[in-house]
Every structure is written in C-alpha cells, then in structure tokens.
C-alpha cells in the first residue's frame, strides 16, 4: 500500500495536468459517472495522506491505491483495463489501476483536515499530541497508523520510527514519557520526508533498518516479527533495544 510520501511524489509528477480539460473518461469503476467528466477542467491535484485527489468543478475524485494499486502517466498497461482513465484536450492522459475511486462532494477544505497530514504545510504537531492524549490507552503500533492522527503514515514508517526512537511497538501511549511522545510526533513527519527523498533517489529499501530485515543493526540479534495491535499489521522490532512502556500483555 503506497504511503503518504509516494502520493506526494505522484502529485508532483502530475502537476502540469492542472488546468487541463478532460476530453474523454473511461474505466471499470462502478462509482464514477464517466459521462459527466468530459469538459470538466482539473482545478487542482492534491494529496491527503494516502488519498490522491483530482478536484473538479462538480466534485473531487478520490483515489486510494489499496494494496496493489498503480498509475501510468501518458501511457497504459497492456492488457489491463484501468479503474479510471482520463484523456485531456491539451494532450496527455492519466490511468489508474487496481485502486478505489470515490466521489468527494463539496469543498475539499470541508472534507479534509489538512492539519492531520504529516506532509502538509498545515500539519499540526500540537493537534496530533492532543489526539494522542485524548485516547491514551492505545498501543503505539496502532496510533501511528491512525489516519486521523498521522495521515500518510504507513507500516514501513511505523516500524522504522519506533526503531529509531527505541520504542517497543506494544508500548501504551499513556506510559510514554512526554519527551518520547513529542519525539514520536516529530519523527512521524521527519521520517516521511526522508522516505520521499530516498524513494525519489531509488534507494528507499537500503535505508530500512528493521522493516523486512532479519537482524537488529544495533544489537546484532534476530528481530521479532508479528502482526500486532488492533490493526494486525506486520511489525518488526528488537526486544533488546526497543523499550516497552506499560504492560500490553505478552505476545
């Protein structure tokens, strides 16, 4: 599943399509009124967390790439029908595959709180801290994946941030020292921008310290891996150097 930094990269790649007018639209999505799209100009192309947003005068097309979604710019996948395909009067096309496409009515500013997007200029660490303190008995492995708090953070960022901060994934938010809690919020954003830079340089995986790794680079012992928390997402951690704050029970 693409994480927030990957969606920001997509948004930057297609920036030149803003202002173009849709000439034709097709695809196998059941939710898109394709006949209403021709003649509509692209008002903006934006991202919110893991959502890619195509803003039109009528509504916004919200694209979520799920686990295996992909896109093509000015080209198509052979033998594969896109979920959504847009061709433009000024030339060029955008094609989206194996994704979820939904309509967002009304103003985007009303539909999304940009303060929750870790890569947005409007990101608010103060708001994130408040939300964390409002529900203090949750596990850190769950809250980092909560898109209402850390929109854009995915499983890779979760694993790497917790390792970077020496925090065990089964730690409870309420038991984290306040300094650690603030660092958690800070690193969720900082690592997301590092992720973006590494991905653009085609070297993302070489920077992973624990995600999909076998041994702890600090302790040189075997990492633990399991599906943890309410999210049951795959988690990698070191029992020696990642401290468990609170008692979340045994694995």
From TrEMBL:
Keywords: DNA damage, DNA repair, DNA-binding, Endonuclease, Glycosidase, Hydrolase, Lyase, Metal-binding, Multifunctional enzyme, Nuclease, Zinc, Zinc-finger. Pfam families: Fapy_DNA_glyco, H2TH. The keyword RNA-binding does not apply. It catalyses: Hydrolysis of DNA containing ring-opened 7-methylguanine residues, releasing 2,6-diamino-4-hydroxy-5-(N-methyl)formamidopyrimidine. The keyword NAD does not apply. One of its GO terms (molecular function) is damaged DNA binding. Residues 2-103 form the Formamidopyrimidine-DNA glycosylase catalytic domain. Residues 209-243 form the FPG-type domain. GO terms for biological process: base-excision repair. This is Endonuclease. The lineage of its organism: Bacteria, Pseudomonadati, Pseudomonadota, Betaproteobacteria, Burkholderiales. SMART domains: Fapy_DNA_glyco (SM00898), H2TH (SM01232). Belongs to the FPG family.
